[in-house]
Amino acid sequence: MAKSKKQKELEGTHRADRDKKSLPIKSVNEVSLPSGLYNKYAIQEWELQSKILIGKNMFDPSFTTMLLMFCNEAGIYYESIDNLKANGGMTITYPTGHVQVHPDYTVKTKAFDACKNMAKEFGFTPLALSKMEYENKPTEDNGLDKF
Fold first, then answer.
1. Which helix (H) or strand (E) holds 100?
2. Chain centroid offset of residue 30 CA
3. Could you count the other beta carbons within 10 Å of the beta carbon of residue 101?
4. pLDDT tens by residue, 92-127
5. Which of 19, 52, 80, 102 has the fewest Cβ atoms nearer than 10 Å?
6. Any idea what DSSP says for residue 3?
7. Other Cβ atoms closer than 10 A to 109
8. Long-range contact list for 102-109, CB < 8 A, 24+ apart?
9. What are the pLDDT digits (tens) for 17-43?
């Protein structure tokens, strides 16, 4: 497990040249619903993610376009799941007996991959969140801080 910066400073092994360099995020307190959201699922995702990011003081107005793309991909993902449920599953069987993967399954998979990649950029995964610098970030308490 990696040592914290404070632990390295106590041990004398801290190197300032290896410190994370990041731009400060200037968060806003509220954001309006943008036009261009694909469907009801994209709107729900926007409302959820924007509240989370604002609550963590991580929503910079320059993130709007990327978050819009993330929410639209999430909307496509959920809509594809609805279509798969309505059409009987992940395959299509033709009258000739030929079985093929349903096109909505491919759309769902591609939308999921796009969301997963964008989620890393926004810190929606635990690993990505641990690498981000933002205001009011909870500090880790490793016991040495009290020492």
1. strand 99-101
2. 19
3. 11
4. 888 999 999 999 999 999 999 999 998 887 777 777
5. 19
6. P
7. 13
8. 104/80, 105/80, 107/76, 107/80, 108/76, 108/77, 108/80, 108/81, 108/84
9. 776 655 555 666 777 888 889 899 999
